[in-house]
TrEMBL record:
The keyword ATP-binding does not apply. Belongs to the 4-toluene sulfonate uptake permease (TSUP) (TC 2.A.102) family. The chain crosses the membrane at residues 12-39, 85-104, 110-131, 187-207, 214-233, 239-260, 272-289. Its main location: membrane. It is found in: Cell membrane; Membrane. It comes from Yoonia litorea. InterPro entries: TM_pro_TauE-like, TSUP/Inactive_protease-like. This is Probable membrane transporter protein.
C-alpha cells in the first residue's frame, strides 16, 4: 500500500514504515536507546530526504521512548534526579544543534554533515561497546557465570566539584559530567535526529558508573523531553517534520517498545550490549559504503545552481 508523504515529497509503502517503526521500538525497549541512530539511516536508505528524516525521526523517538519509560517506571528502574540533570544539559545542547543544522541547511551541506556524523559516531561507539562487552562476557565466564561488576568507582569524574547524591543510582558525584553528556546528546538529537541513547547509555555506565538496570529507564526519560523539544524547534524553524511519516513510525514504535522491554528483562546486560554494538557497526558500515562508493554528487549534478 503506497502512501504519499507531503513534506518528504515521495511515495513509500505504509507497511514498510510500520515495520521499521516496530523494529526500532523493540530496540528502544531492549537497550534504552531512542532507536533514531538506526531509524534515520534506514529512512535515508528508502529514499526519505535527510533533512526530513532527521526532523521527523526525533518525533517518533518521543513516542517509543515514552512507551518504554512507562514500563521502566513500573519496575522503579528510573533515576528521575539524574534524568533531570541530563535533561537540563540536553535542552541547552539541542538549542545549539538546531542553530548549526539551520546554518548548514542554508549553505546546502546538511546532507553530508548528517551522514558523516553517523559514520564517525556509530563507528566509535560501536567499536568501544563491542570490545567492552566482550571483556565483560569473558569475565563473567571466568567467574563461573557470576557477572563481575565493572563499576570504576574512583576515576577523575569523582574528584570534580558540585557533587550531588543520586539515591536510585547509588552515586555521589559531580553534576558537571551528566550535564556535559546531556549537552552532547542534545546537539546530536538536533543534527542527527537521534535520541542519543547510543552515546548516553555507554557514558552513563562507563563514565558515571551507574548500574545497568537503572541506565535504560533513565536514558529513555531524558530522551523523551530532549527529542520533543528538538522536534518542536525543527517544525517551527525548518518546516521539515512530515506528520504522515511520523504517525506511521509512531504506531509501530509504541507497540515495539512494549515487546522490547519484555525481551530486555530476560537477557543479560552484556548480551544486550554486544547485540547493540553489532547493530551499530552494521549501520555504520552501510553508511560508510554509500558515502565512498556512491558519492551524492552523482545525483546532485545540475540540481544546485552553483558548484
Amino acid at each position: 500500500m503506497q502512501i504519499y508523504l507531503p513534506i518528504a515529497e515521495v511515495s513509500v509503502n505504509a507497511f514498510l514504515l510500520l515495520g521499521l517503526g516496530g523494529i526500532v521500538g523493540i530496540l528502544s525497549g531492549m537497550f534504552g536507546v531512542g532507536g533514531g541512530f538506526l531509524m534515520t539511516p534506514l529512512l535515508f536508505f528508502i529514499g526519505i530526504p535527510p533533512a526530513v528524516a532527521v526532523a521527523t525521526e526525533a518525533n517518533q523517538i518521543v513516542a517509543s521512548s515514552f512507551s518504554g519509560v512507562l514500563a521502566h517506571l513500573k519496575r522503579k528502574t528510573v533515576d528521575l534526579k539524574m534524568g533531570t540533570v541530563l535533561l537540563i544539559g540536553g535542552l541547552i545542547g539541542s538549542g545549539l544543534g538546531i542553530v548549526v543544522f539551520n546554518y548548514l541547511k542554508s549553505v546546502g551541506q546538511v546532507e553530508l554533515l548528517v551522514q558523516l556524523c553517523y559514520v564517525v559516531f556509530l563507528g566509535m561507539i560501536g567499536s568501544l561497546m563491542f570490545v567492552e562487552s566482550l571483556r565483560a562476557i569473558r569475565k563473567s565466564n571466568k567467574a563461573g557465570g557470576a557477572t563481575v561488576p565493572t563499576r570504576r568507582r574512583h576515576n577523575w569524574v569523582h574528584n570534580l566539584p558540585f557533587k550531588m547524591k543520586f539515591r536510585v543510582s547509588g552515586l555521589y558525584i559531580s553534576v558537571i559530567p551528566p550535564l556535559l553528556v546531556g549537552v552532547l546528546v542534545g546537539v546530536l538529537a538536533a543534527i542527527m535526529g537521534v535520541g542519543g541513547g547510543f552515546i548516553m547509555v555507554p557514558a552513563m555506565i562507563y563514565l558515571l558508573g551507574m548500574p545497568t538496570k537503572v541506565v535504560v529507564g533513565t536514558s529513555l526519560f531524558q530522551i523523551i523531553f530532549v527529542t520533543a523539544f528538538t522536534t518542536m524547534l525543527h517544525a517551527t524553524t525548518n518546516y521539515t517534520v512530515d506528520i504522515v511519516l511520523a504517525v506511521l513510525l509512531l504506531v509501530g514504535g509504541v507497540i515495539g517498545a512494549q515487546i522490547g522491554t519484555r525481551i530486555g528483562v530476560k537477557m543479560k546486560a552484556e548480551q544486550l550490549r554486544i547485540l547493540l554494538a553489532l547493530m551499530v557497526l552494521a549501520v555504520c558500515g552501510k553508511l560508510a559504503f554509500d558515502l565512498l562508493v556512491m558519492p551524492s554528487e552523482l545525483y546532485s549534478l545540475g540540481a544546485g545552481g552553483g558548484h
